[in-house]
Amino acid sequence: MSQSLTKTETPNQVDCLLIPLKDKNLLLPNVTVAEIIPFSHLLTTASSVDWMLGRLDWRGTPVPVVCYEMLNQQAAPAPNPNARFAVVNGVGNHAAMPFFAILVQGIPRLVHINEKDIQEVEAMNMGAFDMQAVSIDEGQAMIPDLDRLEQSVLSAL
């Protein structure tokens, strides 16, 4: 008896989130994002960098919050009633910071990406924390350098 593969069981497919920022989208594997939560007030931190917006208490864990645009030396986004936080699983094994959050400007969308569906593109305005610019069926997006981002957050704490 033969079994056919469903869309969610297709080999070489990665479920990703297309995360809206001010002027671009980030593309992250779905397993990287722990949760998307509503915008809430932040607790202050002693950080001296402007891109560290503060921290939030997420499920009893203090989570530092960053503004990805400011981290890449771009202007901060204007206040947005649709803003949310994407709580991201840390990529390293740092007991002091198992998660960090990114300020996002809307509701992320789930996209199913096959290897053949993604193409690298030359992009203007790539920031220091943008690892790769890609084109997918849903448009263009940046794949962030999560290792570098996490190291910068750890250094700023």
Topology:
Blueprint: E1 13-20, E2 25-29, E3 33-38, E4 52-58, E5 61-66, H1 68-71, E6 84-89, E7 99-104, E8 109-114, E9 119-120, E10 130-136, E11 139-144, H2 146-156
Parallel strand pairs: 5-7
Antiparallel strand pairs: 1-2, 1-8, 3-6, 4-5, 6-7, 9-10, 10-11
Question: Can you walk through the features of this model?
Answer:
The chain has 157 residues and is mostly beta strands. It has one domain (18-156): CheA-289, Domain 4 (OB fold (Dihydrolipoamide Acetyltransferase, E2P)). The chain is built from two helices and eleven strands; from the N terminus they run βββββαββββββα. The protein has helices at 68-71, 146-156; strands at 13-20, 25-29, 33-38, 52-58, 61-66, 84-89, 99-104, 109-114, 119-120, 130-136, 139-144. The strands form three sheets. Strands 3-6-7-5-4 form a five-stranded mixed beta sheet. It has a three-stranded antiparallel beta sheet with strand order 2-1-8, with no helix packed on it. A hairpin with a 2-residue loop joins strand 4 (52-58) and strand 5. The longest helix is centred in the C-terminal third of the chain and has 11 residues, at 146-156. The N and C termini lie far apart (57 Å). 25% of the residues are buried.
